[in-house]
Design brief:
The protein has 256 residues and is α/β, with parallel strands linked by helices. The chain has helices at residues 49-57, 69-72, 88-98, 116-127, 139-150, 205-211, 217-224, 227-234, and strands at residues 45-47, 61-65, 75-77, 107-111, 132-136, 156-161, 168-170, 189-191, 200-202. It has two domains: 34-170, Rhodanese-like domain (Oxidized Rhodanese, domain 1, 3-Layer(aba) Sandwich); 189-245, no CATH class. It is globular and about 60 Å long. The chain binds zinc ion (ZN) (2 copies). One zinc ion binds next to loops.
């Protein structure tokens, strides 16, 4: 593990990941890019928390959140552009189009959860002609660690969405998102209790109680059925793709 930066969880006493898994993968992120067409090692300049803050304060900087909409919805850096995208691949094109007039005169400053997506994105944007590309090394996770340890000013507001059972790490007490059902300020993600749905969305305590942890009256009806009846209902139907829409489902009344 020599010379490998390890990201340590912000919350849960550093015991969030009990196992280390090492897997061989063709690609570290599903970016849809053909790696042979550009130099993936020609990355942006890595910044630590202090340097990131300084770059963020620079009026010639455009800061872009490289994560998906359901991640930046609950927390982001002050002033960052948060693309309304479902996938990393979508964000690459949208950001390039939006910033195409500033490829040479602005600093493109990017960040993501743990710094992985930026490794690819920064190389891609340099290939696309962006001259001044910077990235937050270790992402929001490592930034938060440095901020706490070194007493640096924290510029991240809200929660950092993570991909394990914790779903998010609280960085500040700010609640920047709303319940997808009633609109109350809320930043708690939940999975719909209907096994056939399992939609990931934001639900406040009162909606959770009223809806019995489901996303819609349809799903609420389903969970009243017996386990066998529910199983029968699921038969032949593929797993709902709503899972991946994460808050975009039409059933969510406030969100839509
Ligand atoms: Zn609610
Ligand atoms: Zn549901």
């Amino acid at each position: 593990m020599k010379d490998i930066r390890l990201n340590v969880a912000v919350e849960h006493n550093n015991k969030s990941f009990l196992k280390l898994k090492v897997k061989v993968r063709n690609k570290i992120v599903a970016d849809g890019l053909v790696d042979e067409t550009f130099d993936v090692t020609n990355k942006g300049v890595h910044l630590n928390a202090d340097e990131f803050n300084e770059m963020l304060a620079n009026p010639d900087t455009i800061c872009v959140d490289m994560r998906n909409h359901y991640e930046s919805e609950i927390g982001y850096f002050e002033g960052a552009i948060t693309p309304d995208v479902d996938t990393f691949r979508d964000s690459l094109d949208i950001i390039e189009e939006d910033l195409k007039d500033n490829k040479e005169d602005k600093n493109l400053l990017m960040y993501c959860t743990g710094g992985i997506r930026c490794e690819k994105a920064s190389a891609y944007y340099k290939h696309k002609g962006f001259k001044n590309v910077f990235q937050l090394e270790g992402g929001i996770i490592e930034y938060t660690r440095q901020v706490k340890q070194e007493g640096i000013e924290n510029k991240f507001i809200g929660k950092n969405f993570v991909f394990d059972h914790r779903r998010a790490e609280k960085i500040t007490d700010d609640v920047v998102s709303n319940c997808h059902q009633c609109g109350e300020a809320c930043n708690e993600h939940t999975n719909c209790a209907n096994e056939a749905c399992h939609l990931l969305f934001i639900q406040c305590d009162s909606c959770s109680e009223k809806m019995e942890n489901t996303c819609s009256t349809d799903c609420q009806e389903v969970i009243q059925l017996s386990f066998e009846e529910q199983k029968e209902l699921r038969k032949g139907k593929g797993n709902s793709n709503k899972i991946f829409k994460k808050g975009r489902s039409k059933v969510l009344k406030f969100k839509n």
